[in-house]
Amino acid sequence: MEELDISTENCIIEQDGHVLIVTLNRPEAKNAFTPAMLLGMYRAWRLLDQEEDLYCAILTANGNTFCAGMDLKAGPDGQEANEEFLAVMAEVPNVHWQALLRDNLPSKPILLAVEGYALAGGTEILQGTDIRIAAEDAVFGVTEVARGLYPMGGSTIRLRRQIPYCIAAEMLLCGEHMSAQRALECGLINRIVQPGEALTTARGMARRICQNGPLAVQAVTCSLREHQENMAEESAMVASDALAGPVFASADAREGMQAFKEKRPPRFTGE
């Protein structure tokens, strides 16, 4: 596995074959956000979009807490931004929201591997991922109201679309913690594993995704993200067909059908 030069002090970015692994790296402060962490995540998601050899990504963290969100000890102004982050923000004003998967999501799937607490921004960024693995002792919660704050990462919009409305309302209005078991029951996460196994499980699922046709995976991801329940079904079907056309016309589609006929694993090239 290779660490990439776009890594920052608080965000390690590595490539393992076709998988990008993004690791929050501020365990001494419960992986609370810093400008350096946000810059690393922003770079990672844009690389995932641009690099054809990357098929998916995993977001995880070092330490026994996934992410505590904003650094409350730093106060309302947060950590002082370095010159590099300020330079990027001058060109990309919403760089922080892109980093936190609120705006401009990558066109490829992102898996999440959570150990420990994922609170406030830690649960907000979860909602921008596609497949979510959590240790059985993981804890979730959109806790901003308990601090007199508003969850600006998109939870008031996305959470009610991903889980039942009344459960989203309870999470957002009460600001209480949610166990991994409860998160599984309401569909916030995909599966629970033993502590210490979240990343290993996510890696296995990422390998399975990478065995599939990359163009097909990207098109399905796009449809899942963009053709939501607020679209009329007829309009959504038309939009879905537009994504399907190029996939069926691709060399990968022909290879997949030929491999099935010849009873062998397909050799996809992304073309």
UniProtKB/TrEMBL annotation:
It comes from Parahaliea maris. It comes from the Bacteria. This is Crotonase/enoyl-CoA hydratase family protein. Keywords: Lipid metabolism, Lyase. One of its GO terms (biological process) is fatty acid beta-oxidation. The keyword Lyase applies. PANTHER family: (7AS)-7A-METHYL-1,5-DIOXO-2,3,5,6,7,7A-HEXAHYDRO-1H-INDENE-CARBOXYL-COA HYDROLASE, ENOYL-COA HYDRATASE-RELATED. Belongs to the enoyl-CoA hydratase/isomerase family. One of its GO terms (molecular function) is lyase activity. CDD domains: crotonase-like. Gene3D superfamilies: 2-enoyl-CoA Hydratase, Chain A, domain 1, Lyase 2-enoyl-coa Hydratase, Chain A, domain 2.
